[in-house]
User: Which sequence fits this backbone?
């Protein structure tokens, strides 16, 4: 199991477009991928769970990956969040 703590930097947080892009990117990994936020653990492969978590700009989150491809999953997940999902 690997994890990384991050801050959400895009101005709208996990709204529909980034949540969809993020969930689709994580779906290709066999590892379990969770986001810990506000004492919740959210399935990062579920668009609806990501949106329902109300993860906004500036939120402190932790990505937790567990499985055969956990390192690659964590690297891609962190890269997407650190880049602000390509938003300004």
Assistant:
């Amino acid at each position: 199991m690997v994890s990384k703590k991050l801050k959400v930097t895009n101005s709208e947080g996990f709204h529909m477009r980034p949540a969809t892009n993020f969930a689709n990117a994580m779906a290709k990994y066999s590892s379990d991928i969770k986001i810990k936020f506000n004492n919740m653990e959210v399935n990062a492969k579920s668009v609806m769970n990501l949106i329902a978590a109300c993860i906004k700009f500036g939120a402190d989150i932790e990505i937790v990956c567990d499985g055969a491809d956990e390192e690659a999953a964590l690297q891609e997940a962190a890269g997407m969040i650190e880049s602000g999902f390509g938003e300004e």
